[in-house]
Amino acid sequence: MKIATYNVNGVNGRLPVLLRWLEETKPDVACLQELKAPQEKFPLQAINDAGYHAIWHGQKSWNGVAILSRTEIKELKTGLPGDDEDLQSRYIEAFINGIVIGCLYLPNGNPAPGPKFDYKLAWFERLALHAAGLLKHDLPVVLVGDYNVMPTELDVYKPERWVDDALFRPETREAFHHLIAQGWTDAIRKLYPTEKIYTFYDYFRNAYARDAGLRIDHFLLSPQLEGRLVNAAVDRHVRGWEKSSDHCPVWIELED
């Protein structure tokens, strides 16, 4: 089973890129972030024509998450529990082929410190609470998406330049490691513990050509799935396509 994540940075504006990538790589499940489209503007017909079912949680101009699947999707949850006043579309959860899949778009948090950073950390706390609850159900779970965090210095080009950024501040990394400590496995680092791997390249300063990137898109696996992980990679070349997102698609393969 091939599960992918892709921050599309605008699902309608970059629909040709998304469809090209789906046709080329054919993931069984694709989790999308930053749809930047209201609920009624999701391109469902084009997604269906590409061979996928879909559930999505849209928002005008910002945020938005979706899960695409070649097989039936059972939607479990829309929105992250813990704050009824939070209207940002950043989490959606489904049951597919016996696996609970949570697709998330964690807040950026910049500028830090400040209200946006406080929101990021509070969202992280809510995610940790929900993740702990998922583990108690003793089901295979993947929490996947754009976490907006570089967990270690290996995950960022020239880390000394990022020490004050919300994606790399100690509080952010501590929150990520606290989540991992519940019993989750960072799938990419499980297979590639010491390799330089980036999933995001800024549009500025020729970052993609210079390989000056960040690893901020992650797969966290529950203990039931750690032993089923057989492969993982970044579709880095997609970042070089015309009108592509600043993120690369990332995927893992699990034994059935």
TrEMBL record:
Protein name from the UniProt record: Exodeoxyribonuclease III
Any one Gene Ontology molecular-function term assigned to this protein's record: double-stranded DNA 3'-5' DNA exonuclease activity
Site (Interaction with DNA substrate): H247
Domain called Endonuclease/exonuclease/phosphatase: residue spans: 4-247
Cited Pfam families: Exo_endo_phos (PF03372)
Enzyme nomenclature, EC number: 3.1.11.2
Transmembrane spans: none
Cofactor: Mg(2+); Mn(2+)
Keyword Hydrolase: yes
Active site: Y105, D146, H247
Record flagged with keyword Magnesium: yes
GO biological process assignments: DNA repair
